[in-house]
Amino acid sequence: MARAPKNATPPDAPAPDAASAVALPERYEDALAELEDLVARMEAGSLPLDQLLVHYQRGAQLLQLCRSRLDAIEQQVKVLEDGQLKVWDAE
Q: Is 47:41 a contact under the CB 8 Å cutoff?
């Protein structure tokens, strides 16, 4: 009977690119909610190491998405405000 190589991935381990296999949310709010959920699960400390890596990778993708969406909105606001960001007064 042949043995699996020592560096073989266990059958129940997620694929290295499992985080990128799932489509990113279209809405900023959905991406932020998923990111907050991932952080909470990681901070709980009960995930196995391989799952921590998958969650970290997914979180990095979500963070990049959120930042790019915020940057795009900031640029739109600058255009609307003549290139100047103005202090928003809620009153």
A: yes
- The highest-level CATH class for domain 24-80 is mainly alpha
**Cα separation, 22 vs 70, whole angstroms:** 22
pTM above 0.85, yes or no: no
Location of structure tokens 């009960």: 46
Tens digits of residue pLDDT in 41-50: 999 999 999 9
Nearest to 63 by CA among 32, 23, 39: 32
Delimit the domains of the chain by residue range. 24-80
DSSP the chain: -PPPPTTPPPTTSPPTTHHHHSPPPSSHHHHHHHHHHHHHHHHHT-S-HHHHHHHHHHHHHHHHHHHHHHHHHHHHHHHHTTT--------
